[in-house]
Each structure stands twice: as C-alpha cells, then as structure tokens.
Design goal:
With 173 residues, this protein is of the alpha+beta class. The protein is built from two helices and twelve strands. A hairpin with a 2-residue loop joins strand 4 (60-74) and strand 5. The protein is extended, with a radius of gyration of 21 Å.
Length: 173
C-alpha cells in the first residue's frame, strides 16, 4: 500500500504537470504568432503488440516547420489556428529502392479555442484557481499523395513520396 502511495505522489509531482497546459488566455484583441522548427528522426516503429521493432521504412529523418496564430476574442476566449508540424521542408527515408523516398510535405490544420471557465476574468470569477477547456477540429486540407503517380515514379527510379505526413482525416478533440 505504501509503495502505491509513493508512486501516485511521484506521478502527481512529475508526470501530470509535464502534460498540463496553463489555463491562461490572451487578453482581448491581442494576437500571438509562433514559428516552431522541429527535427525528427527514427530507426524503429511500434508493432501491433506496441513493442518497438525495426521500422518498415527504415531510417527516417525530416526537418519540419510549424506555425500558429492565436487571437484573444475576449479576456476569457482565445481562438487559434495551428499548423504543426506544418510543412516538411526536407525529409529522407532510407529504402532499398533507387530514387529518394520522402514524406509528403503538408500536414493538416488544427482550428480551436481555449475557453477559460474559472478564473479572474472568466464567467465564473475566481482569483486563486483557473480552469479552461480547449475544443478543436483537425481539418484535412491536403489530399495526400497520389499513390499511382508515386508507384510510377518508384518503378522509373525517380524520387517518390513514400508516406503521407498526416492521416488526412477530420478529427475532433
């Protein structure tokens, strides 16, 4: 019983804050922009049993650039557009085929808001505690790769797209 209590305290102290977002919203009529560069690399992938194994695409690397634009609708609602990771400026996938294999460069767009429910300027006034929710929709504005064209490029030994950067499906969260 004591070990479980220690694990729960450690979990609460270190893991939970690492995944929490703050409940602050932008002041009314304030814009905020962000540019987020990212580099990804992988030489393994998760298998069906959630264990790591060799990647089906071998070594993957990419340099990505994401963008975000946020606007304070009022003191307790912030609207936002996030295109993150955004665009793959460069990518490389190691394959046994001739030609360079790359990632389809465009990721989908996320549109959302942060609504502060409890806080100093929120509908439920409180100076010591803040609570916010962040609903959003992922919009698939890219169609993905044309796999017939990519297969023809692969057979011809030309550069080809080996995988889409995103699932290209609508998502709600």
């Amino acid at each position: 019983m004591m070990k479980k209590a220690i694990v729960l305290v450690l979990l609460a102290a270190f893991v939970v804050p690492a995944f929490a977002d703050d409940a602050l919203t932008l002041p009314q009529s304030v814009f905020r922009t962000r540019v987020v560069p990212a580099y990804l690399f992988s030489s393994s992938a998760f298998e069906d049993d959630f264990e790591t194994g060799p990647s089906s695409a071998n070594d993957v690397s990419a340099f990505l650039l994401g963008f975000a634009l946020e606007y304070g609708v009022n003191d307790w609602i912030t609207a936002g557009l996030q295109w993150a990771p955004g665009v793959a400026l460069s990518s490389d996938i190691e394959t046994p085929f001739p030609g360079d294999a790359t990632i389809n460069p465009l990721f989908d767009l996320f549109v959302g808001a942060k609504v502060q429910i409890l806080g100093p300027n929120a509908p439920v006034q409180n100076d010591s505690i803040r609570l916010a929710v962040s609903p959003g929709v992922k919009i698939p504005f890219t169609s993905g790769a044309d796999w017939e064209d990519e297969a023809a490029d692969l057979e011809a030994g030309k550069d080809f797209v080996a995988t889409n950067a995103d699932k290209n499906r609508i998502g709600v969260g």
